[in-house]
DNA sequence: TTAAAATATCTCGATTTCGAGATAAAGGAG
DNA sequence: CTCCTTTATCTCGAAATCGAGATATTTTAA
């Protein structure tokens, strides 16, 4: 029966896609982590700092959505960055439920210093594909992601 | 200066690739987690069980390599599975440093019952791309991963 | 053969993340 | 306006993962 083999092949291919996706991201993450380790920041902290650095003040809520992290975890990460004087909390005057995370002078200086190099490093880490290939990869990944999300 | 724009574009594209990769995997993981939640197993536990189910007895060390998890974490996960009577530890007679994780009768019965459906679910989750596209995606991801790994 | 290096597992304490629920403020229906 | 629902943040305890180092065993090299 050919239908059965076909079905089986597709199932195995799906599992393999999942595994390869996981391993690829893991490899990339390890390199990225190495690249920022010397700052004394872990990837989550760096991601939050980067967000506030490039997008300006962010409601703590929004940070969680972008970084894909639970609300209780953001509180923790923001606490850590605040202790390091890289960001500070600012109450929102219009909506007193909201607290902004805002980058400090120290934070801005740090990022001015390291962010250009970080982007170069990231480019190197992802240079296993050329630009056209990366663009195509992004398209395919989005298809995959949207479908999974909309189930 | 065109070189500068080109450089900038490539850096941004790399960052975007990283972000999309992360989000795609996250979406997929969420669905997979949903699919196995009713078993009372988290993704790591399920991955270990699946490995031992489909590949036979595994040295605890090897499990860590395949599941991409630190050795101290495997001990913890294997403990949990052992408490649930899904796997058991077996000393290796040839090398007394080694302990195998081996699936139990309960574990085998459970997996016989749920694994076919799990594979179908996974196929559905990843059906945002057809088979040819998945094969190509795997190739591209491998290129990306190998390069990152070999830096 | 024996001392040193390598390997496998585990222990322990710390870090990161989570989920449930508390608190406070804002928005909406009647 | 008042009550109810929604939203934003935080607290707290638990779960998952890690790294450093301990222990036991095997392998290697002199």
UniProtKB/TrEMBL annotation, chains A, B:
<dbReference type="Pfam" id="PF01047">
    <property type="entry name" value="MarR"/>
</dbReference>
<dbReference type="InterPro" id="IPR000835">
    <property type="entry name" value="HTH_MarR-typ"/>
</dbReference>
<dbReference type="InterPro" id="IPR036390">
    <property type="entry name" value="WH_DNA-bd_sf"/>
</dbReference>
<keyword id="KW-0805">Transcription regulation</keyword>
<protein>
    <submittedName>
        <fullName>MarR family transcriptional regulator</fullName>
    </submittedName>
</protein>
<dbReference type="InterPro" id="IPR036388">
    <property type="entry name" value="WH-like_DNA-bd_sf"/>
</dbReference>
<dbReference type="InterPro" id="IPR039422">
    <property type="entry name" value="MarR/SlyA-like"/>
</dbReference>
<feature type="domain" description="HTH marR-type">
    <location>
        <begin position="14"/>
        <end position="146"/>
    </location>
</feature>
<dbReference type="InterPro" id="IPR023187">
    <property type="entry name" value="Tscrpt_reg_MarR-type_CS"/>
</dbReference>
<keyword id="KW-0238">DNA-binding</keyword>
<keyword id="KW-0804">Transcription</keyword>
